[in-house]
Amino acid sequence: MLDTAIRNATIVTAADRTKAEIGIKDGRIIAIAEDIGPAREEIDATGLLALPGGIDAHVHLEQPQGGGVVMADGFESGTRSAAAGGNTTVLPFALQQRGQSLREAVEAYHAAAKGKCYVDTSFHLIITDPTPQVLGQELPALVKAGYTSFKVFMTYDDMVLNDAQLIEVFDLARREKAMVMVHAEGYDAIRYMARRLEEAGKTAPYYHAESRPQSVEREATHRAISHAELTNVPITIVHVSGREPMEQIQWAKKHGLNIFAETCPQYIALTAEDLKGLDMDFEGAKYVCSPPPRDLDSQKAIWEGLRDGTFDIFSSDHCPFRFDDPKGKNVQGARSSFRWVPNGIPGIETRLPILFSEGVSKGRISLERFVALTATNPAKLFGLYPRKGSIAVGADADITLWDPSREVVISQALMHHDCDYTPYEGFEVTGWPVRTILRGQTIFCEGDVIGAPGTGAYLERGTSQAFGG
Length: 469
Ligand code: URP
Ligand code: ZN
Ligand code: ZN
Ligand code: ZN
Prior knowledge:
About 30% of the residues lie in helices and about 20% in strands. The chain contains twelve helices and 20 strands. The strands form three sheets. Strands 8, 9, 10, 11, 12, 13, 14, 15 and 16 form a nine-stranded parallel sheet that branches. A hairpin with a 4-residue loop joins strand 2 and strand 3 (about 15-20). Helix 3 (about 130-145) runs parallel beside helix 4 (about 165-175), helix 4 (about 165-175) packs across helix 7 (about 215-230) and helix 7 (about 215-230) runs parallel beside helix 8 (about 245-255). The two termini are about 35 Å apart. It binds N-(aminocarbonyl)-beta-alanine and zinc ion (3 copies). One zinc ion binds near residues 239, 289, 317 and 319. It comes from Rhodobacter aestuarii.
C-alpha cells in the first residue's frame, strides 16, 4: 500500500500540466496516474497546484562577516523559512576564508548545519584563496566528493580574485566538470566610485547603488564571459540585476557560448529608489544588496529575460542581516557611510510567492516556466536532476501544494526567518504555498512549520548538465 496519496491536484512540471493522482512510498514518487489506489495518508488537493518543491540555488546562511557582523539566519531558521516558502532544497555556500584550507571550511559548515536543517541542503564552495594546494588537490577531491559547484567574486576586499586567478579557477572547473558561479562586479571601479561619493559627502545608504552602476556589472560580466570562452568552460553569472549585464549574456548565448544566468526577486520587486528610505535616511539600509536593485526599465528587461530564456534560474540570494542591530545593518560606521553597511537582504521565504504573483498571476510567464526557473533548471544546473526538480516517477517526493488564488499581504509577522524585517513589507501577492512535502513528509502546512530540524538531508551532487550529462 502507498504511504501517501495526493488527489485532485493539477500537477505542473517544466513541460506541461496534468490532472492526476500522485502516489508516494518510502519518500519517493512511485505512481502518477488517474487512480493510484488506497494509501495510509490521504491529501486532498482540490483547487491546488502540485509543484516540484522549490530549489533555492543561492542562499547565504551563517556565513562569517568582517567587523563583528553576523548573519540573521543560521541553518535552522534559514531552512525553516525556506520550508515555509515552499522550498524543499536549498544550496547555501561554504566560504573559504583566505589562508584557510577548503576542506577545513567545508567541515566547519557541515558542523554548523548538522541536525539543524528542515529541508535538504548541499553546499556550493566559495573560493577566495586559489593556492596551488587548493587548485591542485583540495578542489579536485571535493568535486569528486559531490561539491560540484563553486562561487568566485570579482569584487569585495576579502574575496576578490584577479583575472589570473579567475582564469585558473575556470580552467580547473573545465577539467573537473564543476559549475562556477560568478559574482560579476568590477572591484576597482567600485572603489573609485565609493571614494568619490564619500569625498562629496554622499554617504547615505542610497549611494551604495550609485557606487555600483550597471556599467560596473556589465564590464565584469563581459570579462567573465571572455575568460569562460578562453578556457572553454560553462559558467553561471549570478544575481544579474538589469538590462546592461543581460545584454552581455544574450550576446554570449547568441554566439553559442555555454553561459547560464540567474536573477533574483529584488530585481523585479525593488528599485534603487527603495534605498532612499523615507528621506535619504538609514531606512534605506534595508535594501542594500549587491548588485543593487536598478530601475523600472531594468525590471522590464528582467521580465523579458525570464520569458525568453536569457535567465535559466531564479534564486533568492537570501543574505539576511538584522536592521536594528549593531551586529547587522547598524554596525559601527554604517550610519557614517554606505560603505560599511553589510550587503544582502532576506528573501528565502518570499522568492516563490513574488515570482508566482508578479509572473504567473499577472500573465508575464507561464506556470511551466515558473517551475523551470525555480526547481527544474536549478536541479539540472547543479547536479540534482532527476532525483530533484520534477514531479516524476522515481524522483524524491518533494512537492509543494500551491494555492494560485490566495491573496496575501507580505509582512514580517508572517515570516519564519530570524531577520527583523522583510524588504517586501506590504507587498501584495496572489498565490501562496499551502503545504510543503519533503521526501513524502509534510514539513509545512497552512502557515505552520511542522517538520523538525534535522529532517533535511545533506545531498552529494552529480555533474551539472551544462557539461552535457
Ligand atoms: O548583497 C549580496 N548579494 N550579498 C550576498 C553575497 C553575494 O554577493 O551574493
Ligand atoms: Zn554575489
Ligand atoms: Zn549577492
Ligand atoms: Zn549571494
